[in-house]
Design a protein that fits this description.
By secondary structure, this protein is mainly beta. The protein has a domain at 135-381: TolB, C-terminal domain (Neuraminidase, 6 Propeller). The protein is built from five helices and 23 strands. The strands form six sheets. A five-stranded mixed beta sheet has the order 1-20-19-18-17, with no helix packed on it. It has a four-stranded antiparallel beta sheet with strand order 2-23-22-21, with no helix packed on it. The chain starts with 6 loop residues before the first helix and ends in a 20-residue tail after the last strand.
Length: 395
């Protein structure tokens, strides 16, 4: 049987002949088909397809990278870090005992270690239209030697003897000093686990020295004659500054709030008072001293004293005067080394017999080599109005 012509498809060129029947399974080989001939007519015939020029992509020269060290992973990490920084809310520095000592330029915590700057304590109360207290510069009457290694936390002058509480773990102590020479006459070392703090003399019989500890929850009582430990009592929260007036102790804990203890039992009375300068809270209240009915307080991290009016009424427990102690730092003797090691002002004691009965303040600081005797400001020579009222008198 003849194969149909394929001239119309292949321009008259006959296809090669194929075998009539498929080879059997017993055949030794299968004849391969010859290759198809060149078909030039496909390019010119009616079935020809248009020729398409291949597109040539332009060569793009890579630009020089400004930061050849940046890898894709590093770039992604930087982008994620920027997004996290933009989404994070601003964080205020902690207002706590572990704040920077701005006054001395020393980034030191209460325990002598480095720390970040403190933030001012906030208050939820509505601001009041009340002016802040004025400031007076300290007036120095005398300069006495002081142990530059003493981390002073409390200071008491009693019947010509100066008692000092020092801090730091493993170095805390209670000392009796000769004020004129700074010589240590007697010393009681605290256990290494205790950090010594504020100190007060309670005249209530039996007379005793009362010393705070920082975070250990302990108040210690001593016999002032020989510095022998008499008793220990529990303390709620932190202890910073301490002062005694009559049957009551005033305690600071690093906030703007003062608490009160019974002198005989050292139990809390349940009373508390917040200290303001105008409408602003005064945080970081530290060493305390009662002077002619005024409460004097060091401010931790600052070289100044707050003179606080106690009692009742609108102006009660507000700062009536600031005493600027920054000139004392400039007087710290014997070169920059001593001045740089000195930390914040801390330690105030009252001598009512000084200056012919006008009184004077004994002032020093942490690791200061000088004990300054300062004149009493005119405001403090007389008790405040209503000063005879109890220290915890209600506002």
């Amino acid at each position: 049987m003849k194969r149909p012509a394929a001239a119309s498809l292949f321009c008259g060129l006959p296809l090669p002949s194929l075998p009539r029947s498929a080879p059997s399974a017993s055949s030794a080989s299968f004849p391969l088909l010859p290759p198809l001939p060149q078909l030039p007519c496909l390019a010119t015939g009616p079935l020809a397809r248009p020729q398409v020029r291949p597109q040539v992509r332009p060569q793009i020269r890579p630009r020089a990278c400004l930061f050849p060290g940046l890898t894709p992973g590093l770039i992604l990490g930087l982008l994620l870090a920027l997004l996290a920084f933009a989404a994070a809310p601003p964080q205020a520095a902690a207002a706590s005992r572990h704040a920077k000592d701005f006054a001395g330029g020393q980034a030191n915590n209460h325990d002598g270690s480095q720390a970040s700057a403190p933030a001012t304590a906030s208050s939820s109360a509505q601001p009041e239209a009340q002016a802040k207290a004025p400031t007076e510069a300290v007036v120095v009457l005398a300069r006495l030697p002081h142990d530059p290694a003493a981390f002073t936390q409390g200071l008491v002058l009693h019947r010509g003897a100066l008692f000092e509480s020092t801090g730091l773990y493993g170095q805390s102590s209670l000392r009796r000093l000769d004020p004129a020479t700074g010589r240590v006459l007697a010393r009681h070392l605290l256990p290494r686990k205790l950090f010594g703090e504020g100190l007060a003399m309670c005249e209530a019989k039996p007379q005793r020295l009362v010393q705070l500890t920082w975070r250990e929850g302990v108040i210690r009582s001593y016999d002032p004659a020989n510095l022998r430990l008499v008793a220990e009592h529990p303390l709620r929260g932190e202890g910073w500054g301490l002062a005694c007036r009559g049957e009551e102790l005033t305690l600071s804990d690093g906030t703007d709030t003062l608490r009160f203890l019974k002198a005989h039992t050292l139990a809390e009375t349940g009373q508390a008072r917040r200290v303001r300068d105008g409408a602003r809270p005064v945080a970081r209240l530290n060493e305390l001293e009662w002077v002619n009915g005024w409460l004097v307080a060091n401010i931790w991290g600052e070289d100044r004293l707050a003179v606080i009016r106690p009692g009742a009424g609108r102006d009660a427990w507000r700062v009536a005067l600031w005493i600027d102690l920054s000139p004392l730092r400039r007087e710290l003797a014997n070169g920059a080394e001593t001045a740089n090691s000195a930390e914040t002002a801390n330690g105030v004691a009252f001598d009512p017999a000084a200056q012919g009965g006008r009184g004077a303040l004994y002032l020093t600081g942490k690791r200061w080599n000088t004990l300054f005797v300062a004149a009493l400001p005119a405001l403090m020579r007389q008790p405040p109005p209503g000063g005879a009222a109890k220290a915890t008198g209600r506002e």
